[in-house]
């Protein structure tokens, strides 16, 4: 069956299906939908196993059929992270085999990036949809973002007017992680559910509080002396590494796209206007400097380095993800460090 994300909780209350496939290109919303599934399985004392499908992943290592569980577990949750959106030939076959004979007391949760419409017609996808549920997460467009902010605030018992939500939407430039963090912060500061305009303006103007996007401003501007302090402050304050990583990743991918268009000879103003959302006018000067700082090929290399930070944050590398992130951010800002290169390659353990 196909479900909307808002239907997921109700369905889980009625029945636990063998498979839940959640996919889309909004990482925050994908993760929150996956949390709904995890929460339901925790109520059944499920034993959770997580598998990251990257590179030459061996699908046969996943224990598809039920094996011995811990004394306190009544179910298994096999969580499979599929960043590419495609399981490949081996994965497709094993997923179809599981669909033909689901294991008893087992739920498979597949978390994926965007799966293209053509791929949704593949047999593995249709078989999983037949025995389970697929949830496609649609992106929140820039014109819908203020309404999304107001809705999220209402869920937290806070009332925002249209002007407040528009200010937040403009500042986060389409990034839902940053918008969600700002809503949560203002909900804590609100007086009986009411938020003053001045409180919002002070909040979004405070880069130290605005966490990851303050860091991106420093990277764009090449403020190399501030970057290490900001990252260490974020770490000391207990900010989730994946929240910071998401903001950096979103911004770097955006720069890669602009750098490649620039290489093809397209005027920069047209490139800025073509972005979704368009590059904020006040940010254009420092983003222009950042684009000129590196060749397009170097921007592509930064994507590989981001992948290593992601792996480290999820426990796949024996190196501090904060250390990798700091080295990468310094390189993005224009610093050439041998230590940064070594750390990002994973040479330090």
TrEMBL record:
Its EC number is 2.7.7.7. Coiled coil: none annotated. Keywords: DNA replication, DNA-directed DNA polymerase, Nucleotidyltransferase, Transferase. One of its GO terms (biological process) is DNA-templated DNA replication. Gene3D superfamilies: 1.10.8.60, 1.20.272.10, P-loop containing nucleotide triphosphate hydrolases (3.40.50.300). It catalyses: DNA(n) + a 2'-deoxyribonucleoside 5'-triphosphate = DNA(n+1) + diphosphate. Pfam families: DNA_pol3_delta. It is an enzyme of class 2 (transferase). Belongs to the DNA polymerase HolA subunit family. This is DNA polymerase III subunit delta. It comes from Methylophaga lonarensis MPL. The gene is holA.
């Amino acid at each position: 069956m196909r479900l909307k994300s808002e239907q997921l909780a109700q369905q889980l209350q009625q029945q636990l299906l063998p498979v839940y496939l959640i996919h889309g290109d909004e990482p925050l919303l994908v993760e929150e939908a996956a949390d709904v599934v995890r929460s339901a399985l925790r109520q059944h004392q499920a034993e959770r196993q997580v598998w990251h499908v990257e590179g030459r992943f061996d699908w046969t290592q996943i224990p598809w059929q039920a094996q011995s569980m811990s004394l306190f577990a009544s179910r298994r949750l096999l969580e499979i992270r599929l960043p590419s959106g495609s399981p490949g030939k081996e994965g497709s076959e094993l997923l179809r085999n599981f669909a033909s004979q689901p294991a008893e007391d087992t739920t498979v949760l597949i978390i994926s990036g965007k799966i293209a419409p053509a791929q949704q017609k593949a047999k593995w996808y249709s078989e999983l949809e037949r025995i389970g549920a697929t949830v496609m997460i649609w992106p929140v467009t820039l014109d819908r973002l203020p309404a999304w902010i107001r809705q999220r605030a209402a869920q937290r018992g806070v009332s925002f007017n249209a002007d407040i939500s528009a200010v937040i939407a403009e500042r986060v430039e389409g990034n839902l992680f940053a918008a969600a963090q700002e809503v949560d912060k203002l909900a804590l500061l609100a007086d009986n559910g009411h938020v003053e305009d001045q409180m919002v303006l002070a909040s979004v103007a405070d880069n130290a509080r605005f966490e990851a996007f303050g860091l991106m401003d420093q990277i764009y501007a090449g403020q190399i002396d501030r970057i290490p302090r900001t990252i260490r402050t974020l770490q000391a304050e207990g900010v989730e590494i994946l929240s910071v990583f998401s903001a950096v990743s979103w911004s770097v991918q955006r720069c890669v796209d602009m750098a490649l268009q620039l290489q093809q000879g397209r005027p920069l103003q047209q490139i800025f206007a073509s972005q979704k959302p368009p590059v904020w006018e006040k940010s254009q000067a420092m983003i222009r400097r950042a684009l000129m700082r590196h060749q397009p090929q170097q921007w592509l290399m930064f994507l590989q380095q981001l992948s290593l930070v992601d792996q480290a944050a999820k426990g796949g590398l024996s190196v501090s993800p904060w250390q990798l992130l700091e080295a990468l951010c310094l390189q993005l800002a224009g610093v050439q460090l041998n230590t940064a290169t070594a750390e990002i390659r994973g040479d330090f353990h």
